[in-house]
Structures are given as structure tokens and as C-alpha cells.
């Protein structure tokens, strides 16, 4: 026994999962990344249009055959070019994916003058009309006024020199020439144009029209057709309506010849947008929130 060296066994204890363990951090990072991807998918589904959703579905159903299936090679078309922009700013007016940069009807028409420019436009119209001999004969029957909607030109009927044939929407030659000349003047500005026809309160008697509503509407349309023939662009026409005798120019005498008139208004931007918003609210497809307790009996 004394000839052998003693054997000493030392055991080293290792603490697993202690302070320096990092396996749980990797698992947590993987879980957070998966959750972020999941919420991104939910967000894309929520904001994408039906067309974009169909393109995404087609892409994942057949990623290699999108050219034959009619789908894009990119699941979402962000539009534009992948080239790097030279400007370091966010453009909030970018078009919707797949849309064009062409101006809408509202943007194309709502480019008229506002505010102090109304005075300049009013003075310009007066000078232009006075410089034209064919309009001088109708000077006393033409009134130019600044209104909250814009500059309004009112052509008033004269029993001695009427604008239309009696009881019809046929313009007399002198008034037709006047409107043709006015179209060239209106082309010097870009304001949207509203044309309204008016009659007096006398009951209409004649063939072809049932009442003053039909007559005023046809006369407004007749004026519109001549202005367009004279060069006024179709896109400038914002509204053409007949108001019969509901808005008399001479309220004291509803049967006065002054009430038989054609009004042409060059609208301001703000007035044009107010008119569009009002029309959309009254006649458009937007949903209007009503009182839940409201019933037809309470309204009528």
C-alpha cells in the first residue's frame, strides 16, 4: 500500500442557466420578430384595396406563374420608380397605386381667382365688354356684380329687344352674337362657370313647355350651348340650372321683365368647392348619420 500514490478526485460543478446564459434571449427575439411580421400582415390586409388583395393572393398561390395568371411579379405595386429620389422630403400628395397624375375635374376647374382678384376680374370684364360694339347695344340690360360666389354677369330681358323668341328657348341673333363674344372674354380666366335661367311669375302659355321650370331650364341650356360654341371649354361648366320664378331679380314686381334673365357666374375656388361639397351631401352616395330614434312619422 505504501508503494502507490494516493488518487484525489476533484469534481467541478457547473451552474447551468445562470447569469451568463443567453438562449432565452434568442428565443424571445425570434418570437418578437414573428409577432411583428404577423401584425404587418394584418395591417396590409386592412389597408389594401380589393384589387391589391387579389394580386397578393394570386402571387402566393402561384409565385412562378404570375405572368400567365395575369398577376404582377410584385405582390404590392407601390407605383413610381425604384430610382433614388434627389429630394429629402415626404410627398404627401403621391397618387394612389395604379392611378394617374391627371388632374381631377375638381382640381381642373377649381383654379380660379379668389379674394382681391375678384376686383381685377370685375374691372377686366367691364373694360372688355365696353370695348366691343356688339355688346354696347345691350349695355343697359347687362349688369356685372361681385357676389360671395364670384363675379356674376346678368343678361336681363327687354320687351323692346328680347333675348329669346317669345315663349321659347330660341335666342335672337343679337343675343347669340353677344354670348359668342362673351365666351372669348371668359377664356381669359380659368374660373368655373355657373349658368342659371330665370323667368317672371307670369303663367306660361304656349306649346312645347309645361311651365316656367321647363322654359328656364331650356334657356339656360341654350345659353350654355352658345358659350361652348364660342370656345368655352366643357370642363369649365360647373352647373346649368333653371330656377323659374323662384329667385326674382325684382322682388317688388314678380312679373317685371327684369326677372326674365340669364345669369353667368365666374366662381371663386372656395365657392366652387362649397358647391361641390353641398351637392355631394345632398345628392351623392355618402352615408348621412341620422338620429336612431327618428321615424318617418316624426319627419312628415
UniProtKB/TrEMBL annotation:
Tell me what this protein is called.
Answer: Chemotaxis protein MotB
Compartment annotation: Cell membrane
Which keywords appear in this protein's UniProt record, sorted alphabetically?
A: Cell membrane, Membrane, Transmembrane, Transmembrane helix
| Segments of this protein annotated with the region Disordered | 92-116
For this chain, the family text in UniProt reads: Belongs to the MotB family.
PROSITE patterns, from UniProt?
Answer: OMPA_2 (PS51123)
Location, primary (coarse class): membrane
Q: How does it sit in the membrane?
A: Single-pass membrane protein
Q: Does the keyword Cell membrane apply?
A: yes
Transmembrane domains' residue ranges? 21-45
Per the UniProt record, the source organism is Marinomonas communis
Q: Does the keyword Transmembrane helix apply?
A: yes
The record, for InterPro entries, names:
Bact_OuterMem_StrucFunc (IPR050330), MotB-like_N_dom (IPR025713), OmpA-like (IPR006665), OmpA-like_sf (IPR036737)
Q: Which GO terms describe its cellular component?
A: plasma membrane
Q: Which residues form the OmpA-like domain?
A: 151-270
